User: Which sequence fits this backbone?
């Protein structure tokens, strides 16, 4: 009887298409990336092996170092501004009974939409002349701000739009963890006279530490590979003010003079950076004491 | 005192809800206005008279219809292929009796979840170019389908594991072969997981920008995310029309979301946490 489930032909037919497609678009590109990163290939057939030259070039380019700095600002902003807000909003949503579902489903909306459309949408909202933000500010007598064209404001604007898009997603993640906690403890603490704030800070937050840790790591990973929102809103400009590693990669590798060797080198750098940062986080702050 | 305590979280949360919804309302209003002047005069105001002309103009003249159909078609086919392939693979790995091989294959597929998509971007570009499919829909269909496989196999396999053996045994006694067992018994039982995975994959392809931007340059093949950017750059001065484009690309997702919120939230969050 078990023979039916031991039919090797059926097994092969079911597994092979997936494996072929997966290997072709995941494993093979990963392998070629690690190879091309050490060449000067620019899309033409002739190329030579140049060792670590791509990496040296990239790290001695001021623009790239600036892009790394911007990625770090994305991380700092998401970990130290977004995450605390995310936790507060999740606690607030968990604390109410009425409208809880409405809050949850509404805050989640931006995270299912296309980043490119969100970039266009916010480009309009932040438009210097007809955008509603400046209209609102002019009401208080503030001169129009060129949010995306002024190098002082461009990065903060992109950071905020990025936060607007993703916060709801993480709020829902944390909310689910809070709602899954047993109710009894909270009720006992309430009877003992603990205030809402005390219960949240001393009871709920310690209990949801593991999921907060996941959110921090997802934020770091997200901040390392952020690119769509930058390309759509500012293309890395004005004068590199919002350039991040991945947009630098796109602009350098697929620009007017394509340089695939350099591009793959940068993508490896992003990959290694992301792995390192999450590893460091896990070793230090991400430890959950058991 | 007590009422203040009860109401204050709602006030903060309602402000947040307004911050989330405000850009959409603004864009919806703007799409019904006649010109930039009307938008600039009262950005928060209700349109003076509903002007649906933008909707007609954007749909045909600005080729939103082309981008829209390309997106529908690509997202549907790649999500469907991804679900079918991963369901078949998950079935073979979880239900069929090749335990050792299956374990190895499963681990191998999961490696894919460690590799963030845009790390492979350049190498995939080269691959697609060498395959001679750059600037065709294949250049997106194949990576989209492949990109969804690891997480889909993981989610569907987890679900299939929970199906009791008895059902399968009874079916085998009745003389069903391995294929029939798959599509007559297991597949229908796995439907909830398949729907979740389909939605996640569909949204992923519907929203994808980076590959779509660099693998496709022919205007008539573009999808909504890239088509919309081109559209914005072309009509930079006509914000009413751009708003209409945004409404067109956001509405289908919102309608889907209205019906399937729980499924979508469950799927999208499960996809990330396990990944």
Assistant:
């Amino acid at each position: 009887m078990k023979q039916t489930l031991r039919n090797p032909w059926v097994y092969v037919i079911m597994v092979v298409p997936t494996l072929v497609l997966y290997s072709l678009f995941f494993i093979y590109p990963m392998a070629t990336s690690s190879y091309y990163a050490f060449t000067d290939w620019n899309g033409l057939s002739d190329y030579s092996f140049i060792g670590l030259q791509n990496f040296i070039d990239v790290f001695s380019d001021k623009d790239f170092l600036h892009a790394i700095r911007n990625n770090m600002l994305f991380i700092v902003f998401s970990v130290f501004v977004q995450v605390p807000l995310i936790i507060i909003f999740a606690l607030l949503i968990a604390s109410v009974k009425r409208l809880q579902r409405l809050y949850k489903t509404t805050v989640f909306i931006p995270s299912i939409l296309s980043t490119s459309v969100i970039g266009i949408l916010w480009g309009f909202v932040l438009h210097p002349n007809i955008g509603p933000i400046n209209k609102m500010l002019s009401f208080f007598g503030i001169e129009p701000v060129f949010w995306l064209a002024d190098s002082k404001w461009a990065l903060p604007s992109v950071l905020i739009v990025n936060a607007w898009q993703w916060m709801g997603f993480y709020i829902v993640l944390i909310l689910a963890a809070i709602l899954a906690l047993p109710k009894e403890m909270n009720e006992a603490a309430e009877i003992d006279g603990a205030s809402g704030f005390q219960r949240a800070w001393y009871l709920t937050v310690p209990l949801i530490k593991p999921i907060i840790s996941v959110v921090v790591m997802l934020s770091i990973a997200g901040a390392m590979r952020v690119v769509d929102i930058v390309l759509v809103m500012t293309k890395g400009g004005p004068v590199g003010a919002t350039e991040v590693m991945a947009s630098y990669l796109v602009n350098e590798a697929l620009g007017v003079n394509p340089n695939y060797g350099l591009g793959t080198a940068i993508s490896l750098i992003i990959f290694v950076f992301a792995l390192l940062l999450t590893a460091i986080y896990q070793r230090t702050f991400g430890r959950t004491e058991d | 005192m007590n009422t203040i305590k009860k109401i204050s979280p709602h006030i903060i949360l309602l402000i947040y809800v307004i911050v989330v919804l405000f850009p959409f309302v603004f864009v919806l209003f703007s799409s019904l206005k006649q010109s930039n002047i009307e938008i600039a005069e009262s950005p928060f105001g209700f349109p003076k008279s509903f002007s649906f002309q933008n909707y007609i103009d954007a749909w045909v003249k600005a080729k939103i219809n082309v981008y829209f159909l390309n997106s529908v078609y690509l997202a549907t086919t790649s999500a469907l292929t991804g679900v079918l392939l991963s369901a078949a693979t998950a079935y073979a790995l979880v239900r069929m009796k090749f335990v050792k091989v299956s374990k190895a294959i499963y681990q191998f597929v999961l490696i894919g979840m460690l590799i963030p998509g845009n790390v492979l971007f350049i190498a995939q570009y080269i691959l697609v170019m060498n395959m001679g499919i750059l600037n065709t829909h294949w250049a997106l269909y194949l990576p989209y389908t492949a990109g969804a496989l690891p997480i889909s196999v993981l989610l569907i396999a987890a679900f299939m594991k929970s199906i009791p053996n008895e059902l399968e045994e009874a079916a085998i006694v009745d003389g069903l072969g391995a294929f029939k067992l798959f599509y007559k018994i297991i597949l229908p039982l796995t439907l909830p997981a398949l729907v979740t995975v389909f939605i996640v994959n569909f949204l992923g392809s519907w929203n994808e920008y980076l590959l779509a931007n660099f693998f496709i340059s022919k205007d008539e093949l573009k999808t909504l995310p890239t088509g919309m950017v081109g559209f914005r750059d072309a009509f930079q001065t006509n914000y009413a029309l751009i708003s209409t484009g945004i409404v067109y690309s956001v509405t289908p997702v919102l309608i889907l979301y209205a019906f399937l919120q729980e499924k979508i939230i469950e799927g999208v969050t499960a996809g990330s946490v396990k990944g």
Observations:
- Chain B touches chain A through 99 residues (CB under 8 Å).
- The mean pLDDT of chain B is 86.
- Chain B has two domains: 2-41, 62-274.
- Chain B has 13 helices and no strands.
